[in-house]
Amino acid sequence: MTKEEAKKRIAKLKSEINYHRYLYHVLNRQEISDAALDSLKHELSKLEEQFPDLVTSDSPTQRVAGLVLKGFKKISHSQPMLSLGDVFSVDELKDWDNRIKKLLPAQQKLEYFAEIKIDGFAVSLIYENGVLKNGSTRGDSKVGEDVTENLKTIDSIPMSLASPEDFREHAAIKEIFKNFPELKKISGDLPKTLEVRGEIYMSKKTFEEINREQKKKKLPLFANPRNIAAGSVRQLDPQMTASRKLDFLVYDIVTDVGQRTHEEEHLLAKILGFKTIEKAKLCKSLDEIEEFWKDILREREKLPSLIDGIVVQVNKNEIFEQLGVVGKTPRAAVAFKFPAEEATTIVEDIIVQIGRTGVLTPVAVLKPVKVSGVTVSRATLHNMDEIRKLDVRIGDTVIIQRAGDVIPDIVKVLKKLRPGYSREFNMPRTFCKQKVMRQEGEVAYRIEHPEKCDLVNREKIYHFVSKNVFDIQGLGPKIIDRLLDEGLIQDAADLFLLKEKDLEHLERFAEKSAANLVEAIQERKKIELSRFIYALGLLHVGEETAFDLAKHFGNLDNLSSVSLEELRRIPNIGEVVAESVYGWFKEEIHKKFIHKLLKAGVEVGSMRPISKKLAGKTFVLTGGLESLARDEAKRMIREKGGDVSESVSAQTDYVIAGSDAGSKLDKAKKLGVKTISEKEFLNMLE
Ligand code: IVH
Q1: Which of 151, 354, 591, 674 has the smallest number of Cβ neighbours within 10 A?
Q2: Separation of CA 451 and ligand 1 centre (Å)
Q3: What is the pLDDT of residues 70-99, one digit of tens each?
Q4: Which is catalytic among the residues 12, 14, 117, 664?
Q5: CA gap 73, 145 in Å, rounded
Q6: Domains, the chain, ranges and CATH?
Q7: Annotation marks residue 117 as catalytic
């Protein structure tokens, strides 16, 4: 990027960031996620790093602040309420460690206190003579808002400090006093004023409950627990705060009462009656911190509240103080964040990909960016309607989101960052030398004769060998491409005729892998009818329909000679599917393909006799299962004569609820549908 280009980009980024900051801090609103905003800030700071003379004093990278809202009394903080610098990788953590070590004597050994970072809202509490005097928000870090009355409605904030005497005999407190005898003295002899700081937050469960209520009342939903927590604390009506079931945790004791370490602060807070962070670890090395970070990342989903990383700080308070503050962040602490599931990047191009049924899907080619720790360079745009809805153009800056392992989605276009050279995308008029068309009432564009397109053929073979179909181990798109390009196969049936010696001359294809591949293919020659039907790739015939067809017809002959009338009579099979199936089996080219497969040695089993164990019972699956893959569970139900449905209704007999089951479980409870665990389900099958 030239300096001139950088200058323009910086100006646009700054005004976009400022806009979102104002929304968030002053108006209590949020249009884009924190992760997306962070990503913009990151781009800005990288550009400023590259062109340092473009940094101005009003750049968002140069300040951390917000405005104090009118409507609350102001409270000046005894010490500024600081925030934390972020690191996103072990390397960045090491850099932080090196930076602080340079400021300390050469052989200084450090201990670090690591704890989860709650995604909530910071408040400071002042206790005078042991009684809660006031509580305030961070505000602009020096002056906050007096929200005492609201905070008093939160059960986990003690109205008065616990007297250690009361709890002396309690096992947990006894244990603390045994290991840290000084704390006994400190807690029994507190100064007149004591200040603690911590985080107001809302559990995931309460958040879901509140949003469910909002939905029922047809009110707008809240974006995340932190937004409600912040909004509820800054309510002018304490009744409203009370109704929100907020929670509070202490992470810091500000007043010097003689505590020597951060660890002692946690323990002291606990002694005094505060909820403290249990997920914490005293670490002796960066390796131990990394291990803790990874453990928490793994547990993250199961934790009752949202967290966005861990906080790491030098445990010894004396060294902490000595290291001092830069800007608004203490040198001795950092937030070691979890990989963001959202990021911003630029759409460099929009291309089309064709699927196995001949449907064209627009795909955005992105400037590579890391999301959830993985570098992403493509995002699906689904169809033209989606492109129009998002109004995404080539050259746009977009927010992308990645959930689980799926291809990321573009969730928003940042229109103010649109450059002058942006270009709209149009579906090509032709593809694979054929006309591209769109049927009435359909969103998808497709080509007229998919069977005459090479790329479609490729996709069909990828599908044919994939996990839920022929499941041929070790045979992925890359090898299929090579086999096609070398002329070794023309369709999926040719796979079964491959010999070791055909593969041996392929470059970089070792003898052993040739033998393995041929064996893997031969191993899968026998196949159940339902999988075979699914493998054929008929339009509108997904896995479930393939199963219904297999169940009804029992064998391939019955299916391939069926009449349209009979197809129409099958439950679950609509007109569109009936016509698609009928039309497919009538075509000569398809008859030949089936014949070729059978001749190549494929044996289509008749549908295994279906046990009647679950006959007439409808199941719905929800949440994560432990020992079974979802597809497996579904297959087991169908093989025992049961039905699987995607949504819960009064007709549902059982809901199988795995971990983190969501709205389907609630619906089941409401309708009085029986819920069973995965274990109970497995017992049922026996
Ligand atoms: S220590 C200098 N510990 O994260 C502030 N903060 O991004 C020292 N937070 O302002 C804070 N959990 O509101 C600390 N275990 C934790 C925390 C935590 C959440 C919040 C806090 C802070 C912000 C910094």
Answers
A1: 674
A2: 59
A3: 578 999 999 999 999 989 889 999 999 999
A4: 117
A5: 6
A6: 3-62 (1.10.287.610), 82-337 (3.30.470.30), 342-437 (2.40.50.140), 451-604 (1.10.150.20), 618-685 (3.40.50.10190)
A7: yes
